[in-house]
Amino acid sequence: MTAQDDLDLETLDFGSVEPHDFARIVKGLPTARIAELMAGTQRRRVLDEVFGRMNTRFRPDAAAGRDALIRWRITAADGGPDDVYETHIGGGTCTVVPERTDREPQLSLAMAAPEFLKLVSGNASGPTLFFTRKLKVKGDLRLAGSLTYFFDIPKP
């Protein structure tokens, strides 16, 4: 039995989980368990928490001179609606909107929830997800390759 077995993910307050602890939780869970969690009631709360923290994990020095809109589409495995967030990087800040806007993004990323959580927790690499077709990229590929440098991603 692991610590993950004792963790009640359905009632866990993800807002109280530090990024490095979140990375360890994600690392310790099988993909099927992450998919199960993200198909339930916690999905939107987890996504809102991850995207809500992006501005605190943002490294303005690494993104200096950038002005870009990134659209994230987290696909639903059960045929339900996808979740869409937009991240604007510019002027030394990172802002997030929890919906699709009419603005045209420089980069659009689409992936399933387990791959997204692995990516943002440092448990998967963007290039690997891309080359295994678990991450769909449309737009500025150089920007896509730079994203991991723009954020302080936890080490699991």
TrEMBL record:
SUPFAM superfamilies referenced in this protein's UniProt entry, alphabetically:
SCP-like
Which residues lie in coiled coils? none
Q: Which residues form the SCP2 domain?
A: 69-148
User: Superkingdom of the source?
Assistant: Bacteria
Cross-referenced InterPro entries: SCP2_sterol-bd_dom, SCP2_sterol-bd_dom_sf
Protein name as annotated = SCP2 sterol-binding domain-containing protein
